Amino acid sequence: MDYSNATTVELPVGPRPTPPPAHRGGPWRELSGALAVGMSVLAVVVVVFQVLAFFQGMPGPGPLTVFGHIAAAVLAVFVQRFADRRTGWQAALSVLGVVAVSAAALWLFWWS
């Protein structure tokens, strides 16, 4: 085979893949994420118990407890999303916010 008249064609090079971002989390951010998920699961459980109690003609947890759990879950997830997108003191304050919201909800609706 005669390759003397062959030409070389340069293939276009696309953008280089970006490396994954450095792990900015840590045990505290993971703990607050678990608390936010736990508050969401707890809110769903309380809603299910209220619906079951309604259909069985029983009082159930009550509207204040149901809406309080929903509000705490929404607030915890919102603050956790903020913590996941920030670094430094803003992230630390957000993690403390998730812990505070979770602790307040558990104290008000379960232990007091």
TrEMBL record:
<feature type="region of interest" description="Disordered">
    <location>
        <begin position="1"/>
        <end position="25"/>
    </location>
</feature>
<feature type="transmembrane region" description="Helical">
    <location>
        <begin position="61"/>
        <end position="79"/>
    </location>
</feature>
<keyword id="KW-1133">Transmembrane helix</keyword>
<feature type="transmembrane region" description="Helical">
    <location>
        <begin position="91"/>
        <end position="110"/>
    </location>
</feature>
<keyword id="KW-0812">Transmembrane</keyword>
<protein>
    <submittedName>
        <fullName>Uncharacterized protein</fullName>
    </submittedName>
</protein>
<keyword id="KW-0472">Membrane</keyword>
<feature type="transmembrane region" description="Helical">
    <location>
        <begin position="34"/>
        <end position="55"/>
    </location>
</feature>
